[in-house]
Amino acid sequence: MTQRIQIIPSLLAADITRLSDQIAILEGQGAQMLHIDVMDGRFVPNITMGPFIVSAVRRITRLRLDVHLMIVEPERYVQAFADAGADVLSVHYEASPHLHRTLQLIYQAGVKVGVAINPHTPAESLRDVMPMLDVVNVMTVNPGFGGQSFIPTMLPKIARLLAMANDVKRTVNIEVDGGITGETARAAVEAGANWLVAGTAIFSHPRGIAGGFQAIRDGIENDL
User: Fold this and answer.
1) What digits encode the pLDDT tens for the residues 65-119?
2) 37 among known catalytic residues
3) What phi, psi does 181 have (nearest 5°)?
4) Around 129, how many Cα atoms within 13 Å sit in the side-chain half-sphere?
5) Is 167 annotated as catalytic?
6) Which residue ranges form the domains of the chain, and what is each CATH number?
7) What is the pTM of this model?
8) From the candidates 83, 177, 218, 223, which is the catalytic residue?
């Protein structure tokens, strides 16, 4: 079972000097969530945002904040990001040797529980923790950089994860992250995804942020 489709702009591609104005545009377009990528320079090559940025974004918007921890030892920072204002916290399966314990920490912190999996990680890796999850983030690019191309061989994985959630009668949001455009969004939705993270396609669109958001909406219009 899944919930309604959400287009979730990724602030990794935003202009940090105009963040408040850009978020206001997205609010006007009907966005209900923002995606914040946290990178530590260890699990992935880049270093990006931390709790301070999450807290700053929390002060300028009421939109839900979907925080994606691409970091080693994520369990050390769960409470800090929850306190900063995260509504959803996703940790990577590959970075969490004690994943069950980390998911318990997220739940105890009072935020929605998510797991992200890299392209090489099979869906079946999450079978034993599926009853704990609110979100599964299927990386449709290799994590660490914005602007990459969607990996189409991830589509069957989306479908498998949705089937696994249905097997345990759990309402799980199947999120796709990486290379989402109007065209790839349609394919992801048809495979079973309902949360669509998009960065470059929104913030670098020739018709501006509103045009980028609308282009993805147009791609999945019949499913909204």
Assistant:
1) 999 999 999 999 999 999 999 999 999 999 999 999 999 999 999 999 999 999 9
2) yes
3) -130, 180
4) 25
5) no
6) 6-223 (3.20.20.70)
7) 0.94
8) 177
